[in-house]
Write a structure and sequence with these properties.
With 379 residues, this protein is of the alpha/beta class. The chain has 14 helices and 13 strands. The chain is 43% helix and 16% strand. The site of ligand GMT has 19 residues, from helix 1.
Length: 379
């Protein structure tokens, strides 16, 4: 197949899933064309089957808000026509699904029907999408997609609850490349971070409010009273400076390292003992899956799709959003006993294997075939 993928090119979860999916499809022999405003962060290799088409937006002085969606729609028309794509797969509804709809209408005037699959990732539904600024457009473009997928049952249900959706939504969960995300021998790094054998706790995110990064610092402050440990905060975003201040206020700043954005997350996870994800909402929790693949148990909130990934009492624990005491108590419970920690680590990896790329990739391929079959009369 010739597949067009539209995504955010950043380190955000939807961009990561889209890029890893495109790379895996290219490995399977499909021709994959990424259409976005920058080279996707994880598109870091050469393959004869991978292509990148940049969307550039005019910065004409009249535009206070450069019309990215129109530039994207025009670029999609161009790429679909000239590369003869079979299908478009857009990740994150806003503005990709509506840009794809516009491109589809324009392409009809050239006698081309391009089927569009939209994947819903999370905040495009739970935060931004349901805001009335976007709601009519999001509803319309989901209903006009030829296929719709969501990354968890919970997100699927939220979508039906928040919008008037006539389309079926297929759940295809996030996946993990176990070749990349696996335990790496990084003992020298562990010694540098935790020279006295302290436990290493880790959090990775884009430090947005929805991630409740302040809770991470508060949980850690309670854990470190009982268990000698270090906290690695990986990523960057609006809440970072507040968290740095909070670490000082709680007198734990010597035990907390803010590492900023990192490419080799798997190396950091390889030296970690516990992952914290106290998010307000989380449609799936890709960062937690990456941790689990590196044998790191997870203490998370029970928000959104997290219970579909993190098994309470087995791969970690789930607590109500904001239950800092409960999360700290469970973190201590896991870390205080070496045998128990080892069991949780093994369980985390076993659970991650369920989401192995090899298991999930065919679900996307089969879904494309199904959509192409369903729309073939229109083509
Ligand atoms: O919110 C983020 O962290 C980024 C966001 C995105 O769309 O870029 O991530 C969402 O999509 C990921 C991949 O499907 C999911 O694993 C994350 O749970 C989801 N984030 C939220 O729902 C907050």
């Amino acid at each position: 197949m010739k597949i067009g993928i539209v995504c955010y090119p950043t380190f955000g979860g939807s961009g990561v899933v889209a890029t890893e999916l495109g790379k895996a499809l290219a490995d399977r022999g499909h021709q994959v064309h990424f259409v976005t405003y920058n080279q996707p962060a994880r598109l870091d290799l050469f393959s004869e089957n991978l292509f990148y088409h940049e969307v550039s937006v005019s910065n004409y002085p009249l535009f206070d808000f450069p019309p990215y969606e129109l530039a994207l729609a025009s670029r999609l028309v161009d790429v679909v026509r000239f590369e003869k794509l079979d299908i478009l797969h857009v990740h994150y509804a806003i503005p990709h699904a509506s840009a794809a709809f516009m491109a589809k209408q324009i392409l009809l005037t050239y006698g081309i029907y391009i089927p569009v699959v939209t994947t819903l990732h999370g905040t495009d539904i739970t935060l931004v999408g349901k805001d009335r600024t976007f709601k009519p457009v999001v509803t319309f473009s989901i209903n006009k997609s030829d296929g719709v997928t969501a990354v968890s049952e919970h997100l699927r249900n939220d979508t039906y609850n928040f919008f008037e959706i006539e389309n079926d939504i297929r759940v295809i969960p996030n996946f993990i490349d176990l070749n990349r995300f696996s335990l790496k021998p990084k003992d020298h790094f562990k010694k540098a971070i935790a020279p006295s054998g302290e436990k290493i706790i880790v959090h990775t995110s884009n430090f947005r409010k929805v991630k409740r990064t302040a809770d991470v610092i508060k949980i850690f402050a309670k854990v470190v009273e009982k268990i000698p440990s270090k906290l690695l905060m990986v990523g960057d975003g609006v809440e970072r400076s507040y968290c740095e201040q909070l670490a000082r206020d709680l007198n734990v700043c010597d035990e907390v390292r803010f590492l900023g954005k990192q490419d080799a997350i798997e190396e950091i996870l390889s030296v970690s003992d516990l992952f914290l994800m106290p998010s307000e909402s989380e449609s799936f929790g890709l960062a937690a899956l990456e941790a689990m693949a590196c044998k790191v148990p997870v203490i998370s909130s029970n928000a959104g799709g997290l219970p579909e990934l993190n098994v309470d009492g087995e791969t970690g624990f789930l607590k109500d959003v904001g239950d800092v005491d409960g999360m700290a108590e469970k973190a201590i419970y896991i870390l205080e006993d070496e045998e128990r920690l080892k069991t949780f680590k093994e369980n985390a990896l076993a659970r991650a294997k369920v989401f192995d790329l090899a298991n999930i990739l065919p679900a996307y391929e089969n879904y494309y075939i199904e959509v192409l079959e369903r729309t073939k009369e229109k083509a």
